[in-house]
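# nightly structure sweep
# worker-07 picked up a monomer target from the shared queue
# config: single-sequence mode, recycle default, output format = C-alpha cells
# input follows
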Amino acid sequence: LLEAIRAHPDVRAVGPEPHFFDRNYEKGLEWYRNVMPKTLDGQITMEKTPSYFVTNEAPWRIHSMAKDTKLIVVVRNPVTRAISDYTQTLSKKPEIPNFEVLAFKNRTLGLIDASWSAIRIGIYALHLENWLQYFPLSQILFVSGERLITDPAGEMAKVQDFLGLKRIVTEKHFYFNKTKGFPCLKKPEDSSAPRCLGKSKGRTHPKIDPDVIHRLRKFYKPFNVMFYQMTGQDFQWEQEESDK
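# output follows
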C-alpha cells in the first residue's frame, strides 16, 4: 500500500519503518520529525509501522501528538496472516519449532495459544478496541489485504478518497507479477524497472495440517464477526474459507 500511494505526487512517505510510537518514543518528537520526509504545503506525510496497531501505548501517543491523524490499517484473513508471520520468522530462524507446536497450548484438547504473537495479532477486534478509545472510526480506514492483491486499483481509490487526494494512482500503475503472486507497481513517469516488493514478500508457506487450519478458523470466527460489527465492514474471510 505504501509503495503504491507513494506514486501519488501529493504524498511523501518515509521508506523504513520509524517505530517511533512503539520503540523509539523516548527519542522525542524532534527525532521523529527528522526521520520524516520534507513536505510542501498541500502534501501529506506518511509512514508505516505495522506493530503500532498492536502496541497498547500507540493510540494515546499518536493522539497526544496529532489527534486529527488519519490511520490506515491493512488487515487480511487472520489464519493466513498467522502462517505468513510464521513463514517470515522461519526464514530468519530455521531452528524454531513447527507451526503446530507453537499454535497450541494443548494439541489434544485443541487449545489455541493466543499468547503467541503470530496468533494474537490477528485478533483485530481486541486491538481496535484500544484505538477506538482515542480515535473515531471516521479517522480509520481498513484496507483488505486480499483485495489489495486482486484489485489494487480499487483499494487504492478508497485510500486516495480517504486521504482527500485526487485519484491519480489507478489501474495503469499496476501489473500482475505471476511469479510473486501479487501486483507490482509500474513506473509510469520514467522507464526504470517496475517496483515489486522485496524477497521477503510472496514466500511459499509451509504445509500446515488441515485440522490445525480448521481449529484456527473456529478460534478466529467470533473475533472476526466482532471486528466486522465494529468496523461496519464484512471482509468475507469465512466465505473465502468455504470456497476452498
